[in-house]
Amino acid sequence: MRTMDFLDPGSAEGMPDKADAAFALDFLLSVKNGIRNYSFALTETSSPEVRNTLFKQMEESMDLHAELSDLMISKGWLYSHDVGKQVELDLKSADMALDIAEMNLYPRDTDRLGMMATPNK
Q1: Range 8-36 average pLDDT
Q2: Confidence of residue 95 (pLDDT cuts 50, 70, 90)
Q3: Can you give the pTM of this predicted structure?
Q4: Alpha carbon distance 105, 100 (integer Å)
Q5: 27: nearest Cα among 80, 81, 67
Q6: DSSP output for 23-80
Q7: CB-based burial of residue 101 (10 Å sphere; 0-12 exposed, 13-18 middle, 19+ buried)?
Q8: What is the distance between the terminal CA atoms of the chain, rounded to a whole angstrom?
Q9: Theoretical Cys-Cys bridge with 4: which of 36, 63, 90, 103, CB 3.0 to 4.6 Å?
């Protein structure tokens, strides 16, 4: 395993795609949580108007969930129909999270002269 250095541009390779996948997963989980909350709220209300409103919002959230899931599947960020591939992806994500946790984000020596094209001081 190579040492991660947040000042090394090579450490950022592929980061935009990884960030997009993480943001999409977070959004998907938030949508799922919203659907669950709508279902609970539906069982707690006695007003037909409120129930209809909640049901419509829950349907829209379910449509959003389907759209987001389809996007993530097409990008290779989610394998909802292949547990083996999903576990492999989750393990890879966990390894990346551990690598990030081990990064020295506040190194004592931040001098990078000679590593990158920088003007002479």
Answers
A1: 83
A2: confident
A3: 0.69
A4: 9
A5: 67
A6: HHHHHHHHHHHHHHHHHHHHHH---HHHHHHHHHHHHHHHHHHHHHHHHHHHHTS--T
A7: exposed
A8: 34
A9: 103
